[in-house]
Amino acid sequence: MRIQRTLAAALAACVFVTSAPASAEIIDRVAAQVNAEIVTLHDIRQASVPYLLQKGLDPGTLSDDSTRFRVYAEVLDDLIDRKLLMQEAAKLDLRISDAELEQWLAYTRQQQGGLSEPEVRKQVEQYGVDYDDYREVVRQNLLKLRITRFRVGSKAKVSDAEVDAAYRERYGAGAGFERYITVAHILIQPKTQSAADVAASRQAAEAALARIRGGESFSEVAKATSNGPSAGTGGKLGTFRRGELDEQFEDEAFGLDIGEISKVVRTKFGFHVITVTDTEDRPNPDIQDRKEELRNILLQKAMERQVASYVQTLRGRAFIDMKQ
Q1: How far apart are CA 88 and CA 81, in angstroms?
Q2: Fold of the CATH domain 177-283
Q3: What are phi and psi of 11, to 5 degrees?
Q4: CATH class of the domain defined by 2-158+295-322
Q5: Which residues pair with 270 in a beta bridge?
Q6: Residues forming CATH 3.10.50.40 domain(s) in the chain
Q7: CA 256 → CA 196, 216, 253, 275, 304, distances in Å?
Q8: What is the rounded CA–CA span in Å between residue 304 and residue 319?
Q9: Mind listing the pLDDT tens digit for each residue in 228-271?
């Protein structure tokens, strides 16, 4: 709250006012002193856009006065933490090289859909931020991670029990297993995509379905009527889990009980009559990947808690003067 009051009073002297005379000047001032260094209102304004971008927020929200003051308060708090961490990094002689910075910038561009450097530069500069200043903010972010790992990284641990609990919470108690179904089908493929051929294929599939419902063996009807590659085996396709079959096909198939016969289903391959001959719950093959993803998320949160604790320690040792 003290930061917000300080900013509200200070910013009144430095923001643009549309009704002000054309000769009015923006007055910069010191917002805080952190040991032997200062944070100015200009620093806060310059850091606000990168701060919002790294959080995935729209810098356009700064046009609203109440939002701008709130963001500036958060940015001032962040800049104080950065000053403390950068001062600590200097003591430890930690730095981020230009090559490391370029590697990270290339990675982030890839994560943004393969943007080119000129595209990112344009995106940053449209908010009035110099691209070189943006690069230095990113460098500071990387240095912040480095000093955090150096000081507290080894203390951030995540147990297997925590990962298991997070897995159950996200995916459910039975998510360690996945349903597999063994399926057979009759496939009637239209000779062409003409309306007449498509209608004839649907009619043939309906006729095959009627024969099965009339008591004939699914396998024998498949051998006699299907023109798919599995006709010779009585329509046997194999055993699958979700995601391995055509979407329309599997939506129908996974809703069937063993021995149940589907309605006629159309997919891009043609018209199908489907049956499930067996089901089985198997260990989910994605479980380890999912758990590793959750472990990384939990580890990041644990590191963030360690960073917050470490920064509080630095704040306790530092001289910080919030200017009124």
Answers
A1: 11
A2: Chitinase A; domain 3 (3.10.50)
A3: -70, -25
A4: mainly alpha
A5: 267
A6: 177-283
A7: 31, 19, 5, 7, 47
A8: 23
A9: 999 999 999 999 988 899 999 999 999 999 999 999 999 999 99
